[in-house]
Amino acid sequence: MTLVVLDPDGRYAAGCPGWLADAGEELHLVTGRAGAHPGFARVSVVERYERGTGAESAVLAAAARTPVRAVVAIAPGDQVRAACLRERFGLPGRSREAALALADSVAAHALLARAGIATTPRAEVRRVADLYWWAHRWGYPLVIRRRRGRDRPVIAEPGDEAALRAAVAGGLLPVDPAAVPGLTVEPAVTGEPRCDVDLPLPGALPVDPGLPYVVETVRGPDGDRLVHAVRYAPAVRPARELVRAQAGMGPLPAEVF
Questions:
Q1: How many CA atoms lie less than 13 Å away from 1 in the CB half-sphere?
Q2: Please, which pLDDT band fits residue 151 given cuts at 50, 70 and 90?
Q3: Chain mean position to CA 51
Q4: Helix, strand or coil for residue 5?
Q5: Contact predicate 181/130, CB 8 Å
Q6: How high is the pLDDT of residue 192?
Q7: CA torsion angle for 6, 86, 214, 180 (degrees, to 10)?
Q8: How far is CA 240 from CA 15, 21, 22, 159, 255, in A?
């Protein structure tokens, strides 16, 4: 059996052999960083790791030689990739849909809505007309964000139509109308968001000790809390805990009191 570790820049590779020393399994590292990686039985260095499908191909090739027991991935950019591989091999862990929701705010909104979880409004932006439509629906100010990624930063917050026209004229959207801009729009929220780690979201995101997430909520007009954002949050726990949990192992023996 093999434990596969996905690590694009080698950030966690040095610690994994020690953290997984009692696993009794062969360790296979799939990475984009060449060099020495002691402690791994096999290392696959993938060119253009982030952009291509070389990492997935390396794992599938490994599985053709020996069964894969777990896929370990800490980096945010690996979450959908690892989830797809787990589904391919029938392994426990976060599903592709849940992983995509933590990487894509539109996917998150759709998943939460299907589960009946109250959320703040958010919509995909595909063209300039979308911004004017939602301004008519919600009023100003609008908040325009990046759709994907951990932080999804605000890139414009027009307070009126003149500010929206200026943002559009300043290059907010691609010149090519066939290009998808990868943005979302939402009405501005009032009050400070509250962040909770692994807040249960029944029917949408199960709590997984190896794959923590943060839920950002705000208070709605009727006083109830609405989910404003969900994000994968590996920094909330030590990397060794996440690695071992994803490998299906408990705390290191030295950590058991």
A1: 10
A2: confident
A3: 16
A4: strand
A5: no
A6: 86
A7: 80
A8: 8, 12, 13, 45, 11
pLDDT score, position 106: 94
d(CA 257, CA 251): 10
pLDDT value, residue 255: 60
Q: Please report the pLDDT score of residue 257 as a whole number.
A: 42
How far apart are alpha carbons 191 and 1 in whole angstroms?
51
Q: Which two three-digit tokens encode residue 85?
A: 């591989």
List the one residue out of 215, 211, 218 whose CA is nearest residue 242. 211
> Cβ(120)–Cβ(227) under 8 Å?
yes
Q: Residue 257's Cα: distance from chain center in Å?
A: 33
Task: Decide if 158 contacts 173 (C-beta within 8 A).
Answer: no
* Token digits of residue 134: 């939602």
Distance (Å, whole) CA 151 – CA 147: 10
CA-based nearest residue to 248, from 13, 87, 71: 71
Query: Residue 132 and residue 129: Cα distance in Å, rounded?
Result: 5
pTM, to two decimals: 0.88
What confidence tens digit (pLDDT) does each residue in 30-59 have? 999 998 999 999 999 999 998 889 999 999
Interacting residues of 192 by C-beta distance below 8 A, sequence separation 6+: none
Distance CA(229)–CA(154), nearest Å, equals 13
At 218, which amino acid appears? Answer: V
pLDDT band at 254 (very low <50, low <70, confident <90, very high): low
